[in-house]
């Protein structure tokens, strides 16, 4: 009888989660429904689904701040929303909790140090060059209208493969089994979330979709495992490398430069213990998953917003050209107005619409309200960024919101595209560096105008556009880079 009750409760919880997912539709209308919730409730609302399950949805910085700043020791990534990623990403930093999370975070943090990230700028530049050469060819052939997501996703994958594995996939010009498997896994995770019967492993792994997921995982894991094992063997024989390999070519240096895998292989905790091959594989797979789609979404929407506002685009282009006249792309931190345009785009079109957290103790929010232990807290990044109490005219693209004078009195948690607190995005500096490089070089070489198609937002794992995000490209006679 107890077993039967557990099965019934489990089924009930899954149905509740599915109902919540349906209510939070991954469509343009779903985002408009969030707008209505924010206007109605201002800071938060609760979903009570029977006696077993509750979800608190928050969209005001004063309520979000105490949750995201809570100690990692009481913060848990819930399985109901993140569990579908575990067969792909394993017990990685994204999905781990407690002491395991603390250890991984300490070991991974040096890999994202500013001095390390500076070395990746040449890779971002090289991958952008490949994409822009393809665009010039397409424009010359009369195909000036292009889907930004399609091209930019391949470009960010290309740069990540070089930064992570020192691997030249040529994925921007030709197909790859590994690249196809990553796209397949992302699609299947979204599909599984929306199908209630596929929430049970015993049913999902017997379905055609589950078999496809297993096959794609096998391809991705096999690639990563091989690279990790080969690289560990190379380190044993050749010693430590120097810095990232930016060539991506066939030439081998006597002492190869370090990439993300090398940095993980060399990392040690205070006891002198490093990560196992399986742990490194999980982190590399997570870096590839979290690093290409989110950044591609961010870049695509920046270019879209600037195509809608030619005055801002011209001002950014002038700023970029003035900076690069006598300097290198490594100096792209010095682009104040372009950075303001990027941040406003990340506010208006946040690549990640929400994050969820669960807490092992009661959490207090303003007004003396208490979120009970075990409740799932859905931090609506989209709702927070579109809250009219914080952002007047929230649907208007206005980069001047991020002028230092206009930002000084704003809540520290009004703008959280990379989340916040101890469990924030460890790769946010990497992402911002790539955003600046790609946006700057694109504006230097092309003028972007609207593609003549109605844009309907599509919030999936990242924010996309239904049918693609189409813009029209015009080649510019840019100065030599």
Topology:
Layout: H1 2-23, H2 28-41, E1 44-49, E2 53-58, H3 61-68, E3 75-76, H4 79-82, H5 86-89, H6 98-108, H7 114-118, H8 121-140, E4 145-147, H9 148-165, H10 177-193, H11 201-204, H12 208-238, H13 260-266, H14 277-308, H15 310-324, H16 336-348, E5 354-359, E6 363-365, E7 369-371, E8 376-380, H17 381-385, H18 404-407, H19 428-445, E9 446-450, E10 457-459, E11 463-465, E12 470-475
Helix pairs in contact: 8-9, 8-19, 9-14, 10-12, 12-14, 14-16, 14-19, 15-19
Instruction: Determine Rg (CA atoms, Å).
Output: 23 Å
Q: Tell me what the CATH architecture is.
A: Orthogonal Bundle
Strand fraction equals 5-15%
Q: Supply the number of structural domains.
A: 1
- Indicate the structural class: alpha+beta
* CATH top level class name: Mainly Alpha
Segments where pLDDT lies below 50 for 5+ residues? 3-19, 244-254
What is the fold named in CATH at topology level? Answer: Cytochrome p450
Separation, N- and C-terminal Cα atoms:
72 Å
Strand order of the largest sheet: 1-2-8-5-3
Binding site for heme: 425
GO molecular function: aromatase activity; heme binding; iron ion binding
Subcellular location: Endoplasmic reticulum membrane
Signal peptide: 1-19
What is the structure about, briefly put?
The protein is built from 19 helices and twelve strands.
């Amino acid at each position: 009888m107890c077993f039967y009750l557990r099965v019934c409760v489990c089924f009930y919880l899954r149905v509740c989660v599915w109902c919540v997912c349906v209510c939070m539709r991954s469509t343009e209308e779903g985002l408009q429904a969030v707008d209505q919730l924010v206007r109605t409730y201002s800071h938060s609302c609760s979903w009570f689904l029977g006696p077993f399950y509750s979800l608190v949805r928050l969209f005001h910085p004063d309520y979000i701040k105490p949750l995201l700043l809570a100690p990692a020791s009481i913060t848990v990534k819930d399985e109901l929303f993140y569990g579908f990623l575990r067969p792909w990403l394993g017990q990685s930093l994204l999905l781990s909790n407690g002491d395991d999370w603390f250890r991984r975070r300490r070991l991974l943090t040096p890999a994202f140090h500013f001095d390390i990230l500076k070395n990746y700028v040449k890779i971002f530049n090289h991958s952008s060059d490949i994409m822009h050469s393809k665009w010039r060819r397409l424009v010359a052939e009369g195909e000036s209208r292009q889907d930004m997501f399609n091209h930019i996703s391949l470009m960010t994958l290309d740069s990540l493969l070089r930064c992570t594995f020192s691997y030249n996939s040529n994925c921007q010009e030709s197909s790859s089994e590994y690249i196809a498997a990553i796209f397949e896994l992302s699609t299947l995770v979204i599909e599984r979330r929306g199908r209630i019967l596929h929430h049970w492993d015993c049913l999902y792994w017997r379905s055609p979709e589950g078999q496809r997921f297993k096959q794609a995982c096998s391809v991705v894991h096999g690639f990563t495992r091989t690279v990790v094992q080969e690289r560990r063997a190379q380190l044993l024989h050749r010693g430590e490398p120097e810095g990232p390999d930016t060539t991506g070519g066939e030439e081998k240096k006597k002492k190869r430069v370090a990439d993300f895998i090398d940095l993980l292989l060399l990392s040690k905790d205070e006891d002198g213990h490093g990560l196992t091959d399986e742990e490194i594989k999980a982190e590399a797979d997570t870096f590839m998953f979290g690093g290409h789609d989110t950044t591609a979404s961010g870049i695509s929407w920046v270019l879209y917003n600037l195509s809608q506002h030619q005055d801002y685009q011209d001002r950014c282009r002038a700023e970029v050209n003035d900076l690069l006249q006598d300097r290198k792309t490594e100096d792209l931190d010095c682009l104040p107005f372009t950075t303001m345009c990027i941040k406003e785009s990340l506010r208006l079109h946040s690549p990640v619409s929400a994050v969820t957290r669960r807490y092992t103790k009661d959490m207090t929010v303003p007004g003396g309200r208490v979120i009970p232990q075990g409740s799932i807290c859905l931090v609506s990044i989209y709702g927070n960024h579109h809250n009219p109490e914080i952002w007047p005219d929230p649907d208007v693209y206005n980069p001047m919101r991020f002028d230092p004078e206009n930002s000084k009195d704003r809540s520290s948690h009004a703008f959280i595209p990379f989340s916040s607190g101890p469990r924030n995005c460890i790769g946010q500096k990497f992402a911002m560096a790539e955003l600046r490089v790609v946006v700057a070089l694109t504006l230097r070489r092309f003028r972007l105008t609207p593609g003549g198609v109605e844009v309907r937002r599509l919030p999936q794992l990242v924010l996309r556009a239904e049918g693609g995000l189409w813009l029209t490209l015009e080649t510019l006679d840019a100065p030599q880079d």
